[in-house]
Amino acid sequence: MEESKKKLSPEDASATPVSEAPLNAEFDAEKADEILREVSAEDNERQLNKVTSLIVNGFSLFISLFLIYTAVFGAFDALRQRSIYLLAAMTILFLVYPAFTKSKKNTVPWYDYLFSLGSFLACGYVFVNYVPILSRIGISNRTDQLVFVILTVLVLEGTRRLVSGALALVALVFLVYAYFGNYMPGMFRTRAGGIARMTDYMFMIPEGIFGSPLGTAATYVSLFVLFSQFLNECGMGDFSRDVALSLTGHKTGGPAKVAVVSSAAFGTISGAAAANVVGTGTFTIPLMKNVGYPPEFAGAVEACASTGGQLIPPVMGAACFIMAEYIGIPYSKVMLAGLIPGFLYYLSVFLTVDVRSKKLGLTGIPKDQLPKLKDAMRERGHLLIPFLAVVYMIIRQYTISRAALIGLILTVLLAPIKKSTRMSFKQMFNALVVSGRKTVSFGVSCACVGLIIGVVTLTNVGTVLGNAVLQLSQGNLFITLLLVMIMSIIMGMGMPTVAVYIVQAAVTAPVLMKLGIPMLTAHFFCFYFGIIACITPPVAVPSYAAAAIAGCNPGKCGWQAFKMAMPAFLVPFVFVYEPGMLLNGGGGSVLDVVLCIFTAIIGVYLVAIGMEGYLLRNLVKWKQIIALVGGLLCIVPEHITDLIGFIVLIYLYISEKSAIKKAAASAGGQGASAE
What we know:
- The chain has a two-stranded antiparallel ribbon with strand order 1-2.
- It has 34 helices and two strands.
- It has helices at residues 2-5, 10-14, 21-24, 29-39, 50-73, 78-96, 110-128, 130-135, 142-162, 165-180, 195-202, 212-234, 236-248, 254-267, 273-290, 295-307, 318-327, 331-337, 339-360, 373-380, 384-395, 400-414, 425-459, 461-473, 477-492, 497-507, 509-514, 519-532, 541-550, 554-565, 570-577, 590-612, 621-633, 639-674; strands at 614-615, 617-618.
- It is globular, with a radius of gyration of 26 Å.
- 72% of the residues lie in helices and 1% in strands.
């Protein structure tokens, strides 16, 4: 491994001319895999022997083929569909992923074989006894209760080792509350719990473990993972990178803008932030360092850019699919709602990069060293057809499964057109296996959050917590939004976006709706800050991955990313006060929406100026403060505050321009006097 590190480390890349390493050589794949294993439990896999590897690959292939089969011929009944999917996912989980990061990677301990077998038997029990279970109408027997306890323990352990220890702990606290709720004081007291009652509600019917989150993962979310994997196998990532280079590489601070654009494009087919960082960052971070960006800032740019991929249609991460299912609206509306917030998020990062680039005096890459757009389109442009077909079908409100299936079929049919995108049968087989394995984390996390939702609805604790938030904010909308933001960020430190969104959807989204916020807007607010939480220190996995590539301190990189994302914190407040920005008919005329977008752009630009302290030249402190205040005023839904923000920007620009001219004239006069 040490030898592989010497092939092209970030430090080496930063010392290599742009025309040589970064543009014409790939970052060492072994190094990228090592980074992912260090920062992402999902990529910290064991080295399996032949027999165990055959079992794992068999179940992984089964998941992919099962998803394709049910997309073509129709899904099974809910409990059967979800139980057979969870059976395969959990069986893989305990064979592939060690209990701890420092556990031996070259062997599977006896207890993990036992856990894997227990998962197989527990989920198999539900699949085989599907009819008797439903016929008992939610009344469990001792066997049901034993299987529920075993499966719950396995789901919590699987979540802890693969997804998030924090999520497993939160789920455990909720379960303990459901069991001992009748002993709780005051408003938190609930009906007597007990295993029998919990089993009746969270195991015997498609709720709890087998609730709608798992149903979403067992159908179209995992199908989109499969679609994304095939696109990547064809070279969609390379295509995104080449297009980004051709469009922005020659601009001021070009490599950083390439990172933003390519990560946004890559995010359209992948909703995993850490994987996005490695997918694009192993190229863009060395390129940024090469033109003079500090390592911490280079890593922060990539972390922010990759995190926002969950906001970009059509994939948008698993949380958006669950949102559509949870609130009962077509996914096309959720996808449409993501357009403007996603645009504003990336614009805020892009503007911050632009301001920092000018502050550092960084230039772009010479055009003759960059790929040409027409060459990129000629070589891989046909890969856009499956992507556009999926978007079209979702907008026309075809089922999500059908859209993903058509996209997958078109990818397979169109890939052979060019040699650069052609896949061998071995590559297609590997794509099926890898896709099946990638869905494991979705399965176990959705089963775990299903337990949380089950407890919330069983005990009504969501209403209790929501009322507590209302009491704390005294019904003030802005304070309530701040509290929800803080809760989302705290929970998101170590928990995946899916888990953060679902907990907030059960607890705080109803509170926002009570204050008059439209349902989709309330849920999207929770979802957005669940994403932002990914890059909020001290736990910021995308920043850790970026720091590993950049060769810098993860803490410094994390705080840089947090600072860079500050303008993006304004975006959710803007669309709450102007729901029409989500394009869901939430109110407001077209003119109001356009004006709101315009003022939002001014707001994020002013905050970027204030945070970086630069506009044409370095700003004095009081002008930085004015810029920040002007940016914040732009989120207030009043024309007068918008006008003040606009005036602040004009004033800062004119005053700085005038100061530069005076300084130039003064320097010229002194030069003439000297002569």
